[in-house]
Amino acid sequence: MAEKAGVSPATVSRVSRGSTQVSPELRDRVLRVIEEHGYRPSHFGRALAEKRHGALGLVFPGLSGPYFSELIQGFESEALETGDQVFLLASHYRADTDAKVLDLAARVDGMAIHAGTVSEAAVEEVARQIRVVIMAGEAGPAQASVSTDNSTVGDLTRHLIVDHGYRRLAFVGHPEGSPDVTARWLAFLAAHREAGVEPPADPVRLGLAQSDGAIAARMLLDEGRPPEAVVCANDETALGLTLGALGRGLRVPEDIAITGFDDMPMAALVRPGLTTVRQPVRELATTTARLLHAPLTQKDGDTVLDTEPVLRGSCGCPDGATRPTARTGGDG
């Protein structure tokens, strides 16, 4: 292409990038040749020349559900502002995830990895090559992390125990492999200790899909002495449990109180409204994308975004009730 236009390859590259460091005469000549021959610049050639790919990687365990949808939209909106492409990698907990992540690292300038998706060894190796930000977990060997405050589950649990007088509570969620669910389970336990109430020995270990909530309904409500209140690790599970309870002729919250986490749009639309914790999912994503543009050598550590309890009818409060009283101590 450069030979046909009678210019250097560097000039063709500058014109294709829209650089102003080219005279109008040369620009017109190169553009005419590009138009005549249908030339399209090579992304990989440009990346080699500029030592930048113009792309960011986003690694998740899976891409289904409103939580991940909101994260992707927030991340992509920030990438649009910087002109970056976004490459998505859904691991689905496959055994070859580490290898796929290392392969992706060769094609992007920075990578956001959802906590619990790949091994720490893989994170460390990628972080030596490009900038890595961990989402919903601690930075560890990565340059930075962005997460939301899961301890607010403790405020919600205390509200159920202290303000409503519930004593038999259950927690639905699988702590192993999910730093978020682990932190929420620990906050749930800490609230019981502070209130002097015996917690359940174990969580109901299920996933985060609405279908898991339906399974939880069978496990918790078809036995002789069901709990008075259930704290679910997310809203999808809570809504599945609510449907399961209503299908069994139980009333929410009169027969069983239910809470979630996320404050997805459906939480405010169902009746009774779902008591939950509102987390800034889009801000989590946009902050992560912004941090990926810092230098590789810059260590930003852990950023924790605030969350807020939202009280609605599913716990026994009127919709739009004020937030519960925050804790005064403890380790939740």
Care to describe what's here?
- The chain is α/β, with parallel strands linked by helices and 332 residues long.
- Strand 7 (229-232), helix 11 (235-247) and strand 8 (257-259) form a beta-alpha-beta unit.
- Residues 327-332 have low confidence and may be disordered.
- It has 13 helices and eleven strands.
- The strands form three sheets. It has a six-stranded parallel β-sheet with strand order 2-1-3-4-5-10, with helices on both faces.
- Helix 5 runs parallel beside helix 13, helix 6 (97-105) packs parallel to helix 7 (120-129) and helix 10 (210-221) crosses helix 11.
- The longest helix is centred in the N-terminal third of the chain and has 17 residues, at 66-82.
- The chain has three domains: 2-41, Orthogonal Bundle (434 Repressor (Amino-terminal Domain)), CATH 1.10.260; 52-149 and 282-305, 3-Layer(aba) Sandwich (Rossmann fold); 152-279 and 308-315, Response regulator (Rossmann fold), CATH 3.40.50.
Summarize the structure.
The protein has helices spanning 2-5, 9-17, 24-37, 43-50, 66-82, 97-105, 120-129, 152-163, 179-195, 210-221, 235-247, 266-269, 281-291, and strands at residues 55-60, 85-90, 110-114, 131-135, 144-148, 169-172, 229-232, 257-259, 276-278, 301-305, 308-310.
Which class of secondary structure composition applies to the elements?
Answer: alpha/beta
Distance between the termini: 64 Å
Major beta-sheet overview: 6 strands, parallel
Any idea what the shape is?
elongated
Which CATH class of the largest domain is shown? Alpha Beta
Mean pLDDT level: 87
Number of helices: 13
CATH topology of the largest domain: Rossmann fold
CATH superfamily grouping of the largest domain: Response regulator
Which residue ranges are poorly predicted, with pLDDT under 50 across at least 5 consecutive positions?
327-332
Helix content range: 40-55%
**What is the radius of gyration?**
25 Å
- Spatial ordering of strands, largest sheet: 2-1-3-4-5-10
In N-to-C order, the SSE pattern is HHHHEHEHEHEEHEHHEHEHEHEE
Q: Which strand-content bin applies to the residues?
A: 5-15%
* CATH architecture classification of the largest domain: 3-Layer(aba) Sandwich
How many beta strands in the DSSP annotation? 11
Count structural domains. 3
Biased composition (Polar residues): 10-23
Keywords: DNA-binding, Repressor, Transcription, Transcription regulation
Pfam families: LacI, Peripla_BP_3
Organism: Streptomyces meridianus
